[in-house]
Structure formats: C-alpha cells, structure tokens
Amino acid sequence: MAFSRITAAILGLCLAGVNAASAETRRLDIVGTGDGIDVLRVIAASFMQQEGSPQIEVPPSIGSGGGIAAVGSGKAILGRVARRLTDAEAASGIVYKEIARLPSAFIVHPGCGVSAVTSDQLVAIYSGRLANWKELGGADMRIRVVRREDQDSTLTVLRASMPGWHDLEITEKSKTATTTQEAIETVRDVQGAIGFGPFSRPLEQGLTVLRVDGHYPTDANYPSSAVLALIYLSTLQDPDALAFLRFADTQKAADVITSLGSLPVKP
C-alpha cells in the first residue's frame, strides 16, 4: 500500500508537470493577410502582458484567401483578412469581425526626393506616363513601380476609392509583389521605387509616406482605406481565442490601433 501511495504521488507530480508545461506552451496562431500585420502583432503583444495569456503568433502572410481557407477547414482557429467575406464564405459558418480601418498609403524610397503628390500624378506614375522623379520636382531618378496582384485587398480598395484607379491599367514596367511585406521591403531596398500598402507607423522608418492631394494617411480627409478583420467559425469554443476576441474590443486594444495610425472599429 505504501508503494502504491508513493507511486500515485509521483504520478500526480508528473501529471502536474505535464499540465504546467502545456500551460506554458499554449499557442494561438492568427493566419491570413499581410495587411495590418504590424497592428495585429502589437495588439497580440499587449494581450500577452495579461497573466495566464497564451502565446499569440501572427505569422507571415498567406493572404486573406489563405486565412479563410485555413479557418474554414479547421486548420486554424483564428484568421485575419483585409476584405469582406463572400456570401458563400459567410454561409459556411465563418464569422467576420472588423477591428481596424487602415489607410491605404503610398510609400517611396527616400532617395526619390518627393514627399507629396496629387491623385492625378499617382495615376500617371502607375500608368507609366511619368517615368522620372525629376518630373515631380524630385531626384533625377527612374521611377520604379511596385504593384500588387489583381486580387490584393489594398489594390481592390484603391480601385474602388482612389480617383482614376477604377480602370487604371498599371504599367507593364512594374514589379509585382505577392505580399505586403515584400512590397514594403522592395521599396525600402530599391532606389526610385514606389509602392502601396496599409498604413502603420513603422512605415515611417526608412521610407517616405506620401501625402496625396495634401492629405497624410492619418488625416480625416485621406481618400482611401481598407478594413482589418478577424475571422473564426461560429462554433468557436476555444477559450484562448475567445479571450483574444474580447480583448480586441477593449479600450487598450483601441489605443494600440490609434497609436499606429489606424482607426479602431467599434464593436
């Protein structure tokens, strides 16, 4: 009997150790779009400051479509998207929760020597009619256009909201970036480059964020923005995911969003 009690005690300690280790390694991935990735990572960092919180990971982009597929198939608990769900996606049981409105910023390599453009000039740049920054008062340097694929959420928003972009045929002399992060890094690395993506304060480090028609992306009258949303199945019961969704509605999360130059969306 003594042996049995000792064995039971050891087993109990082992199980307690396993449970403690499991608690320490709880991890929740939020997969999907590259738009707003900086914003979501800072929200996650703020959430993880709470005692007992799981490890929240915001991995590199697999696109809004990839996030929707992962959540819909059960491979991911939470996803992130920068476009609205289609009727079919919503009918499959996926819930769409807006958390932030992200201005669609135009960024250039600082060597271009230009900090402001008009919407007409942007159309001329992306159509290929303007080919050198000196034509805009900048450096004598070739304009190197960085674009996104046609399905990209920011490009979709630009076509819907930016003057002259609805039917704009982007010059063939352009580089197509497959993620927001690739577009940003290309503009950062290539002399004369211009690109676009959702605005966040980190873009101001080592890049020039353009004013458009006199408005900076954080101005109320800036003409274009996309929405960052979280997605999950309507049957969601995971306590860590539910806790994070509740945190996304708090004033603390709203303050994080505002500090990065975006606009929180009220629940």
From TrEMBL:
Keyword Nucleotidyltransferase part of the UniProt annotation: no
Keyword Thylakoid tagged: no
Keywords: Signal
Coiled-coil ranges per UniProt: none
InterPro entries: PBP_domain (IPR024370), Phosphate_ABC_transporter (IPR050811)
Domain PBP: 20-203
Superkingdom of origin: Bacteria
Signal peptide (from-to): 1-23
PANTHER family: PERIPLASMIC PHOSPHATE BINDING COMPONENT OF PHOSPHATE ABC TRANSPORTER, PHOSPHATE-BINDING PROTEIN PSTS
UniProt protein name: Bll7999 protein
